[in-house]
Amino acid sequence: MTSSRTIDHEANNREVIQFFVRHWRDTKHGGYRLKDERDIYELCANQAARRKRACILAQIPGDVTEMTMEQASATLRAKADTSPEGIRRLLDTFAGEFGVTKEQIERRIQRRIESIQPAQVVGLKRIYVSLRDEMSTPSDWFEPVEAAPAANDAQGEGDAGAAAHAPTAADKAKAMLRERARPPAAPAPAPAAEGDGQEAAVTPAPASPPAPERPMAPPPQVRCGFDADAFAQQMQHAADKGDAQTLDALGEQLRDVLDEDLRATLTDMHERLRAGLDQPPRQQQPAAPVPQPRRRAVP
After folding, report:
1. pLDDT tens, residue by residue, 189-223
2. Of 23, 64, 165, 250, whose CB has the highest number of CB atoms within 10 Å?
3. C-alpha separations of 227 from 111, 118, 180, 220, 244 in Å
């Protein structure tokens, strides 16, 4: 049994640690008993020095220890290498020794590696020391990056791939709108007739003036977050103003609503509002005369 102690004469504090030193050395592939006197002495001296440092640290006030650690961290941050060469060496070290990728490090520091801060470089170096001394594993510090599923072109799994990439209803509506907005294709020129070694000149067809297109709003399901109440208010507002053209344009958009129940409800509302515009305004009936009270003559 060995003991280590420190005495603070100013504060009259004493710190004593007693411990046993086993003449045994552990290795990665198993341990063995120490028989050489020098090995035994060095082992006991190493263990005693560790306990002595622990006794000294126990005598130091906690606020002094915290101030010292903060000053050491500030010194490390001031000397941290954030140059492109230093960052490249850091990435190569983590990737070569522990298989940690750049994406995992960026996810750990919550920013791109080019904008890393000196304090984060110091933190990564501490993680490297912990991994090097086998005190932790990469999974303790870094989240695993999920690999993207490879494209499967096998015939047996063709249906599953098609189902994964099947277009949604919004994609179909967008494609339909693009087809409507696309101008009509110009007719192909007629092939030149082969005569006496001369090609007949092709007269281009006169371009017809483009018909004025009425601006159309995107269908409800293409807009981000279709609001049925807002759409109904637009129809009611157009009906109140007597704008039949706007009301008809809104009615055409109802064909693109994918929800059948919602389309039926809005269509019924549109028909009632449109029928109200077609009816002539009611003539106001003249108000009936109010009978005057009869006055009795005074005798």
Report:
1. 555 544 444 444 555 555 555 555 554 544 444 44
2. 250
3. 37, 49, 23, 8, 22
